[in-house]
Amino acid sequence: MKNYILYIIILLLFSGLSAQAQEKKYDFDNMTRKEIMEISYDDMLEMPFEDLKKMAEAVGVSTDELLKMALNREVSSASKKGESVFESPLSTTVITKEEIQLTGATTYEELFRLVPGMVVRQESNGNFDIHIRGNDNLPPGNFSHFSENMMTLVMVDGRIVYNYINGGTIWESLPVSMSDIERIEIIRGASSALYGPNAVSGVINIITRRPDKEGIQVHGDLQAGTDNTYLGNFSFLNNVNDKIGFKLSGSYDFRDRFQDDFYEYATGEYVPADSLTSMFGKPLAASSPNSTLSKKAFSGNAGLFYDMNKNVFMSLNTGWQSSEAQSTFFENLATPFSIRKSETAYFDYVANAYGVKAQVNYLFGSQNLHQKMIKPVIEYDMNFLSANLEYDLVLNDLGIGELTVLPGINYQLASYTDKKYVQEIDTIGDLDQGLLNGEKKLETISGSMRIDYKPVSSLRLIAALRADKYNYPNDIYFSWQFVAAYNINSKHFIRGTYSRANRGSFMGNTYADFRNILNENTIIGQQQVAPGVFLPILLNYNQYYIGDKNLSLLTQDLFEIGYRGIITDYLQIDLEGFYSISKNFDALLPAEYELTGPALNATMTAIEINIEDEWHYQNIDMKSKQIGFSANISIQPMENLMVKLFGTVQSTKLTSVLKDISSLYMADTTGTLPLPVAGMPYENLTEEAFEDIKNEWTPSFYGGFMVNYAPIKKVNVNLSGYYYGKQTYSRYYYNSATLQHTTMSTTLDPNIIINAKVAYRVTDNFSVYINTRNLLSHGNTEMAYND
Predict the structure, then answer these.
(1) In the 8-state DSSP scheme, what is residue 283?
(2) pLDDT grade, residue 332 (50/70/90)?
(3) N or C: which end of the chain has fewer CB within 10 A?
(4) Which parts of 37-161 are beta strand (E)?
(5) Whole-prediction pTM value?
(6) Could you give the C-alpha distances from 96 to 39, 60, 237, 658, 713, in angstroms and in order?
(7) Rounded Cα distance, 136 and 128, in Å
(8) Is 365 left (phi over 0), alpha (psi -120 to 50) or beta?
């Protein structure tokens, strides 16, 4: 049935269907300036010239200036205060709903390829690895889940969506319909002082639509394409009256992988799913029941909105999602791919009243980060509660300029338990096989203060301080941000920032406590014990993985300068330079090692060797020093043509990097056994075991472009591209032939991805289009050892 549908779609030239059932009529004489400026840029381009002229007159500007103002959409995430992007005091980019529609991006992750300073790699069809300014795969040469983005805070309407097992964002589990996105705000740089833990490299806030005065709005989109890709999403919004509104939205996303085989660490080749073997020589079915599946996700949302008056607003949103994706997220010793499943629901309540803003949200459900992982069990029930209270105190009447003080308090509680799932498996004796083995909690209580001061209209000073008290580690961490921004005139803006941010705790590195049986009574050879008498050598090799409740939390200091300028009526530029120092990284490293034997066993039928190898999460001495520069240029030579160019050049220097994990083992000097015989604690290593290197996994240059052209009123052509330079990735590797722990690496060549979308507007509310992703069909791997 799927193929039949696909053939029909092909006959329709891969046409997608987009519908927006809403009448756009405006009474400018009875609209406020704010209401007029909320009209989208795309809608302005669709207006008859007389209406556009009337709109410009109502605002008090020329038509050219009106369109230029529409390009600088309002952003609130940067300083928690509504302002235009041009006046944002931080490195900020806004992706509008118009850009989403024009570019044809099929996931919100793909949209980040339109943003400067974003490293975006596709792992499998529709699944992406996303970082702000890199600092990924740190420390190099460790387990693969350390390459996940654990430094960027992602939110939906200010609601934190974060994985507290080992950090990072499970993107497919976000219950967000593409047609329900109003805009996406991205802040580059340390922002914990404003948003709390994990906003180290920046913040991504996906803001969804809400009903407005236009009445009923219906947005829908259907697509089908190659690799059994089927996408659909919709949103329905309506104001019941001038105070109450509601919305409904939903989506589905189904995709196959680009290939059927999996990369196997043991052989360095791609092999069928049913023949995968782990590094330790044991079969491991590390794929989903359907090895071709890349992603399937379903979601539904509902929202209720109440505007009592201009000073009081409340909303209640709820939603559910069920998802399954195959990509790199959690460690797997056979192949980088693993299947993760998630079924969650949420409630989010927001209230604003006379400057007081309260937000309480609750996320709950179950997740399995590795569906086929036998040990440890990484399946759990989860609950996450966040409550935030702020008061926006405006003190402009003091006669000293514009002054706003924003005190706030926050409480977060993450509770994860794998007890039910551990009990469901067959354990070996009293062996616990879960990552957590019971219910574990991470709790944070925070207080914050932000002062926003404009002594004169052209100068803006911001100071923010936040204190986060954790249960583990039992300590208080301070984060801060100091910003100075100056409007030289209406066309030139400069800014400078100094920030400190910290990452929070994770369940894995805090609570991990399990034993992994690598070899149990495994024959690795034989030894002569008497003339003509040979006994087999049996190896019992156990690894223990242990967390640490007292780990120091990763911290980053950031220095940043920026300039924005309107050079001409058709040219805008945004420049930013940054330098950061990150420290207190942690890693999973050998800490204690004990070898017993060789010795005859009790029955004298074999020689036994027993190895107990303890790996601990521990802080390391490595620091990351990053310096870089980003540029974003927007050109609009004609009303129907827009060109956007952006790029980032940077260098990341790592100090005190462990050369190889093998440094933590002393090899057998007798030559009788291919085994390490003693462990070397990390703190006892000599200087020869470390080196200063460049982090080559983050490309030294990455960026892209977007060109949007409307040759006639009903036709729109969009072309976009994304480029990244050469990257070298390294990770932990166990050589089963020599029984040695070491490091493996691979290099990915530079790559460019070109996308195109050609749309034809049949009516004002209905469009068909051809949407192509990866127009050059390069077929290159974007993520190490992936599709």
Answers:
(1) B
(2) confident
(3) N
(4) 74-75, 83-84, 91-96, 118-124, 127-132, 152-156, 159-160
(5) 0.88
(6) 12, 24, 18, 43, 21
(7) 14
(8) left
